[in-house]
Design goal:
146 residues, alpha/beta, 5-stranded mixed β-sheet, two-stranded antiparallel ribbon
Length: 146
């Protein structure tokens, strides 16, 4: 079982996926980070999320394939998130067409409510999914090591 800390940015409440990041628990392992175009951002997203993406946009099918490839060699990946919408967007990224999903045959989602965690204050670059996922990883591992 390998854990990956998940963060997602999306276009407003229950809005479309913008970016998704996974930061592995294993020290030094490469993260996953990808983004989609957001042609009609909410004003808040335009001001706070899009300026800090720092990654090129890809097509949804490409993002889904890269996501599946990234996790594909792990026999039992566990995606850890602190917000239900993050899990929902990650799960929906596995749906690639009507009645079809990515080849990930095993995945577990774990939802945490880490008391004291606030990505807006603990992230090196708030509202950047990669940095927010790294902040979640650092916080959870710090709490677990106590």
């Amino acid at each position: 079982m390998a854990r990956y800390f998940l963060d997602v940015e999306y276009n407003g409440f229950c809005g479309d996926l913008i970016s998704l990041a996974l930061v592995p628990e294993a020290e030094g392992a490469a993260p996953f980070y990808a983004a989609l175009a957001c042609p009609n951002p909410t004003p808040w997203v335009a001001a706070h999320v899009l300026p800090v993406l720092h990654v090129e946009h890809s097509a949804r099918a490409e993002m889904a394939a890269r996501f599946a490839d990234y996790l594909g060699d792990d026999p039992d990946p566990v995606l850890v998130a602190d917000w239900p919408e993050d899990i929902a967007h990650a799960a929906m990224l596995m749906v690639v067409a009507p009645g079809r999903r990515t080849a990930l045959d095993r995945i577990t989602f774990k939802m945490l409510d880490p008391i004291g965690f606030d990505a807006a204050t603990l992230s090196a670059l708030p509202h950047n999914a990669l940095q927010d996922a790294a902040a979640l990883r650092a916080f959870v591992l710090g709490q677990e090591s106590r």
